[in-house]
User: What shape does this take?
Amino acid sequence: MRVLIVASYNKNRFAPFIVEQAESVRQAGCTLEWFGVRGKGITGYIKEIPRLRRTIQKFHPDVIHAHYGLSCLLANLTTRRVPIVSTYHGSDINLSRVRPFSKIAMWLSAWNIFVSKRNMELAGVREGGKYSLIPCGVELSDDQLQTKEEARNELGWGKDEKKVLFAGAFDNAVKDPELAKQAIRELRNEGVVAELVELKGYSRSEVNRLMCAADCLLMTSKTEGSPQVIKEAMACGCPIVSVDVGDVAKRIEGVWSCYVVKEKKPRELAKKIALTISFVGKTNGREKIIEYGLTNEQVAKKITKIYEGVIG
Assistant: This one.
């Protein structure tokens, strides 16, 4: 099958989890081509129609797989001859100003993939028909098996230093870094002094090392779909503390030393962080990734089956 991937390229790169998913699809036997959307906003996306049309005419795809609502709408407005598979990742459903465009894309697309049940509910659809719930997968690698001691030695972290990874960048307001910082300050009341480490600007291997070395990952986001960073932490056996956002509660169900805090209160987060810091060893997150069918290879099989269905 010839598959054209359509996704945003505003930051001069495609989102890493989209690239990893596409690579798994390629390994499953598909031939890929990429179309990076450089426009912004609905007007900017619509202006990309002529360029996308030329790419379609040159590549002759059997199916187009678009990621995020505006890219999905763009693909559907560009061609009705090639079946469109659309994946919605969270912000395209959670943000009320974008959701109407995503809903038009859902109606037009040959098939729609949602990464979380919460997003399906918000979009007003159910599994069945032309809708599927398929969270993005995660790549399992040997460097995720590194022990905390090994990882800390490579990072130059002391054995007794307490390190909490923040699930995002401090300058990203959606990730609510202020709540995370308040939780770390509250942690002192639990008798624990810890450093909050920003996850920004690292390669995948560097992120794996940080997750193997850290005492826990902290997520305080205001909104999410199915956050990749949670699955990445699971793959590394890193304990997790999160507010109840996206599909985090579902993902970490049954994983040792992982907690979801229903109320976004710094003190409640601090109490759970204190529990993860006392945890010794790795969690069973990696095993749960495989059990839940969330490796890239497992997800690619589901997606290629959808491709075959819409082409047929």
The first strand starts at residue 2 and ends at 8. The first helix runs from residue 16 to 27. The chain has a mean pLDDT of 96. DSSP finds 15 helices and eleven strands in the chain.
